[in-house]
Design goal:
There is one protein chain. The protein is α+β, with helices and mostly antiparallel strands and 433 residues long. It has two domains: 173 residues, FAD/NAD(P)-binding domain (3-Layer(bba) Sandwich); 138 residues, D-Amino Acid Oxidase, Chain A, domain 2. Helix content is 29%, strand content 24%. The protein contains eleven helices and 20 strands. Strand 11 and strand 12 form a beta hairpin. It is globular, with a radius of gyration of 22 Å. The chain starts with 17 loop residues before the first strand and ends with a helix. The mean pLDDT is 92. The structure holds flavin-adenine dinucleotide. The site of flavin-adenine dinucleotide has 40 residues, from helix 1 and strand 18. It holds the Pfam family DAO. This is L-2-hydroxyglutarate dehydrogenase, mitochondrial.
Length: 433
């Protein structure tokens, strides 16, 4: 997992243990927010705590790697604004840092007549969202852009790109460290409490009244805490006394990969017209920065929050999910779709049949099983998918000092720099930094 850009985590035993602000969660949202905060407040001390050995190895390191241009979202909504702004900021950041990306574009292709009105509505949305250079193209235009793709009509978004979001996360970490921030990995925050006494040998009184303990008994003291826990955002909230709702329900997305000799079939991103009933964008063809091509992901309920294999299982995650009324309702309302997704996850021929609607030349022999990602889907008790940004503050003594990012809706990687600005504004407002 190590790359040349990998920041070296600070050694906890060499660090001091008191900080103005602790950020828990070293995914792209936590790292971008920590970076933004330290750039705004260079005289304060910051620490970022991550439970894994490496940074950004969950959602931020297991995704499609697309720089979305912001077509899909309700005009004027927070999500639309964050994505629009975030895309521009992402390209500027990548250029400034010299990080590799490709602006290879994207087609959203209608293959059935009944999809055309939805495609046109999407075009209008994209225009209202000020997506750059968006056009509608016909079957001939599709063939010019993607010679092996067939369709009746398509939305052409040349502004869409691809990047390795993990590499971007690591660049944020480097900025944070260079500005004086401390990064500690293998530190799983498992308890948060208000303390009344100073640590031994410390004369700071109760200047740092929050203690964050890890599962091995180590302690970090701080004035304020921000959590950005991704798949564990609900559990991190619970440890500061918050309600577990909205819960996180993990949806695994399995990818197929094209065999190298078939890479010529795909030039840029090829997406279906999304079904408005579901929050996911549908299985797509995605070229990767390393030259490979991924097909997918599907979306199946995962039996383990950070489980990337078909049969990964965790008893607590499983019981938590199945005993949650919201999930029971969601499953009942989407039984047919859910079973179909599971079927296509096991029998990849069924997945290939869907993909063949776009590239008829594709066959089962051209694909292999590939990697997977697990999405943190927030769900309320009535089974509604929470598709908006949710902040929550701790309760009791810690309340005024702990802020949780409960849900950073996809595409949070694309929007990360804009999200970080919003999170930093919120931190400043709540904590009077
Ligand atoms: C299959 C898939 C495809 C996607 N495709 C795209 C795409 O193409 N473009 C795009 O923009 N977005 C995409 N997304 C969405 C994007 O990847 C996520 O929105 C984003 O990575 C979320 O970042 P995060 O920091 O919130 O979560 P994460 O990256 O999951 O980070 C959370 C971190 O918190 C840590 N943590 C949790 N609990 C604790 C604890 N107790 N103590 C310490 N650390 C803790 C975890 O170990 C983890 O590192 C995709 C997501 C998935 C799953």
């Amino acid at each position: 997992m190590l790359t040349t850009n990998e920041p070296v985590p600070d050694d906890m035993s060499l660090c001091c243990s008191t900080y103005d602000v602790a950020v828990v969660g070293g995914g792209i949202v936590g790292l971008a927010s920590a970076r933004e905060l330290i750039l705004r407040h260079p005289t304060l001390s910051f620490i970022l705590l991550e439970k894994e050995k490496d940074l950004a190895v969950h959602q931020s390191g297991h995704n499609s790697g697309v720089i979305h241009s912001g077509i899909y979202y309700t005009p004027g909504s927070l999500k639309a604004r964050l994505c629009g702004k975030g895309t521009t900021m992402a390209y500027e950041y990548l250029d400034k840092k010299g990080l590799p990306y490709k602006r290879c574009g994207k087609l959203i292709v209608a293959v059935e007549r009944e999809e055309i009105p939805r495609l046109k509505a999407l075009y209008e949305r994209g225009q209202k969202n000020n997506v750059r250079d968006l056009t509608m193209i016909d079957a001939k235009g599709i063939r010019e852009r993607e010679p092996y793709c067939r369709g009746l009509m398509a939305l052409d978004s040349p502004y869409t790109g691809i990047v390795d979001w993990r590499l971007v996360s690591l660049a944020y970490a480097k900025d944070f460290q260079e500005a004086g921030g401390t990064v500690v990995t293998e530190y799983e925050a498992s308890d948060m409490a208000m303390v009344k006494e100073s640590p031994a040998g410390n004369t700071d009184g109760i200047k740092y009244p929050i203690v964050i303990r890890d599962s091995k008994g180590k302690e970090v003291r701080c004035r304020y805490v921000l959590t950005c826990g991704g798949l564990y955002s609900d559990r991190l909230s619970q440890i500061s006394g918050c309600s577990p709702d909205p819960r996180i329900v993990p949806f695994r997305g399995d990818y197929l990969v094209l065999k190298p000799e078939k890479h010529y079939l795909v030039r840029g991103n090829i997406y279906p017209v999304p079904d408005p009933k579901f929050p996911f964008l549908g299985v797509h063809f995605t070229p990767r920065m390393d030259g490979s091509v991924w097909l997918g992901p599907n979306a199946v309920l995962a039996f383990k929050r950070e489980g990337y294999k078909l049969y990964d299982f965790d008893a607590r995650d499983f019981v938590d999910a199945l005993s949650f009324r919201g999930l029971q309702k969601l499953v009942m309302n989407n039984l047919v779709y859910g079973v179909g997704e599971m079927y296509r996850g096991v029998f990849i021929g069924a997945q290939v049949n869907i993909l063949k609607k776009f590239i008829p030349e594709l066959s089962l022999n051209d694909v292999l099983r590939g990697p997977a990602g697990v999405r943190a889907q927030a769900l309320d008790r009535d089974g509604n998918l929470v598709d908006d940004f949710v902040f929550d503050v701790g309760v009791g003594d810690v309340g005024s000092r702990v802020l949780h990012v409960r849900n950073a809706p996809s595409p949070a990687a694309t929007s990360s720099l804009a999200i970080a600005e919003m999170v930093a504004d919120e931190v400043e407002r709540r904590f009077s930094l």
